[in-house]
């Protein structure tokens, strides 16, 4: 498949099924781009959007408070639990990462802390600051010159062949080398998506980095754009480790793809006594009532339908099925990740990968077979295909997904052998 013109034209979508204008049906096996957490066309969400649009669609936060934003903030803070004080809104995950980075720099003003340390591979967004902290060479191609800035960036890579993400020791050796007294913030994805296909930051690494940040006065920024709001079978990726991040960056699943919104959940220790929203400013549409109403309806639906525990149960079932497929296809690795954020690594010679990456071939074959899955990875070592359906997927839809994925994989690997 080359270029957007070769793509099918979408007509409509309901639940986990998407239909194109030729009437072909696709199982949405990757929730769009891992954002449509509660499925497409949920009536409760459409009604909430319609209701709000009859009342007011835009009111600027400098002129009015609005009820959907206030209710959403209360709900987000109650989901996040103790240790967080405020929610700052934006229109995307990328903008929310920018907000977190700006807040971190404001917090560290006057301390001499000017270095941000992130991991490689990682992906934090397409805007300049978010891309600057991303360990994603293909997405940085040709634009490195735009990604400078006053803050210095350092990246930590894994020293272990078998592990894609760095260990606590890998992190500590970089943090010690750059000088702990200059570290402003540490940025990480608890479970990786676009760059590392479901690779997990170990719990001991999360806890160790929390301790490090506490001991030197650095901030811990957790990018939960893909992991946040239930996909992992827990509300957040950091939940399992029991740590509180200083800044939780969210997007995608917050509104389940219904309308653009992102939220930075600000820890109590950040900018004490100061309103983070006032310091970080924002964009024209940040905190608009319509997107907030959609997000509120999505989170309410997630909670009321117990989709977080459902992600755990269905995820365990899907993982078993994908593991069986991997056992019969030697170059396909068993799934990484948690809950319904699952990615399968693929082994391929780097030279062949450069011309015909197998993950792209699987994604294209899946599309021909009526299934959407998502390619991820930054190179031959990390290339993966992600299988991350909506948390609402039913058992018979999982069966359809598996049958179509099996066909796509066998076509792709048959082509490989020709
Ligand atoms: C972990 C992570 N952070 C940030 C982003 C950027 O979010 P957005 O595409 O909404 O700007 C993404 C998008 O894929 C992501 O997966």
Q: What would you say the CATH architecture of the largest domain is?
A: 3-Layer(aba) Sandwich
Helix/strand-derived category reads alpha/beta
Count of extended strands: 15
Helix content: 25-40%
CATH class of the largest domain: Alpha Beta
Q: Would you spell out the secondary-structure blueprint of this structure?
A:
Elements: E1 10-14, E2 17-20, E3 25-28, H1 31-34, H2 43-55, H3 67-80, E4 84-90, H4 93-107, E5 115-119, H5 128-132, H6 137-140, E6 152-156, H7 168-178, E7 183-188, H8 203-216, E8 219-223, E9 247-250, E10 262-267, H9 276-280, H10 289-304, H11 307-328, E11 336-338, E12 341-345, H12 350-355, H13 358-368, E13 371-372, E14 374-376, E15 384-387, H14 395-417
Helix pairs in contact: 2-10, 3-10, 7-8, 11-14, 13-14
Residues 33, 92-94, 97, 123-125, 189, 193-194, 223, 225-226, 251 line the site of pyridoxal-5'-phosphate.
Structure description:
39% of the residues lie in helices and 16% in strands. With 418 residues, the chain is an alpha/beta fold. It folds into 2 domains: 4-34 and 307-417, Aspartate Aminotransferase, domain 1 (Alpha-Beta Complex), CATH 3.90.1150; 44-304, 3-Layer(aba) Sandwich (Aspartate Aminotransferase, domain 2), CATH 3.40.640.10. Strands 4-10-9-8-7-5-6 form a 7-stranded mixed beta sheet, sandwiched between helices. Bound molecules: pyridoxal-5'-phosphate. Pyridoxal-5'-phosphate binds at residues 33, 92-94, 97, 123-125, 189, 193-194, 223, 225-226, 251.
């Amino acid at each position: 498949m080359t270029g957007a013109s070769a793509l099918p034209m979408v007509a409509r979508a309901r639940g986990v099924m998407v239909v194109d204008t030729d009437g072909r049906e696709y199982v949405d096996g990757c929730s769009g781009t891992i954002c449509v957490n509660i499925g497409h066309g949920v009536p409760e969400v459409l009604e909430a959007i319609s209701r709000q649009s009859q009342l007011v669609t835009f009111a600027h936060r400098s002129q009015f408070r609005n009820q959907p934003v206030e209710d959403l903030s209360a709900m987000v803070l109650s989901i996040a639990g103790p240790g967080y004080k405020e929610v700052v809104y934006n229109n995307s995950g990328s903008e929310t990462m920018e907000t977190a980075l700006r807040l971190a720099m404001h917090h560290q003003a006057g301390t001499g802390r000017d270095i941000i340390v992130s991991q490689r591979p990682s992906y934090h967004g397409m805007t300049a600051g978010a891309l600057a902290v991303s360990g994603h060479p293909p997405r940085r191609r040709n634009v490195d010159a735009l990604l400078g800035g006053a803050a210095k960036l350092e990246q930590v890579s894994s020293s272990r062949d078998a592990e894609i993400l760095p260990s606590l020791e890998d992190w500590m050796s970089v943090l010690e080398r750059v000088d702990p007294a200059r570290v402003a913030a540490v940025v990480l994805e608890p479970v990786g998506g676009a760059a590392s296909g479901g690779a997990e930051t170990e719990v001991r690494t999360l806890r160790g980095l929390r301790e490090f940040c506490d001991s030197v006065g650095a901030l811990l920024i957790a990018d939960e754009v893909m992991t946040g709001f239930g996909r992992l079978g827990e509300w957040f990726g950091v939940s399992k480790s029991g740590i509180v991040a200083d800044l939780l960056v969210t997007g995608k699943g917050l509104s389940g793809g219904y309308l653009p919104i992102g939220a930075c959940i600000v820890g109590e220790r950040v900018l004490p006594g100061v309103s983070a929203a006032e310091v970080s400013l924002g964009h024209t549409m940040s905190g608009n009532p319509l997107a907030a109403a959609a997000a509120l309806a999505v989170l309410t639906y997630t909670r009321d339908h117990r989709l977080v525990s459902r992600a755990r149960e269905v995820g365990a079932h899907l993982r078993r099925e994908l593991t069986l497929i991997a056992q019969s296809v030697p170059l396909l690795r068993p799934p990484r990740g948690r809950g319904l954020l699952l990615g399968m690594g693929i082994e391929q010679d780097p030279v062949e990968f450069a011309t015909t990456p197998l993950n792209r071939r699987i994604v294209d074959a899946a599309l021909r077979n009526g299934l959407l899955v998502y390619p991820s990875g930054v190179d031959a070592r990390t290339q993966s295909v992600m299988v991350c359906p909506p948390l609402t997927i039913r058992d018979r839809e999982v069966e359809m997904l598996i049958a179509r994925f099996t066909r796509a994989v066998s076509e792709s690997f048959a082509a490989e052998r020709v």
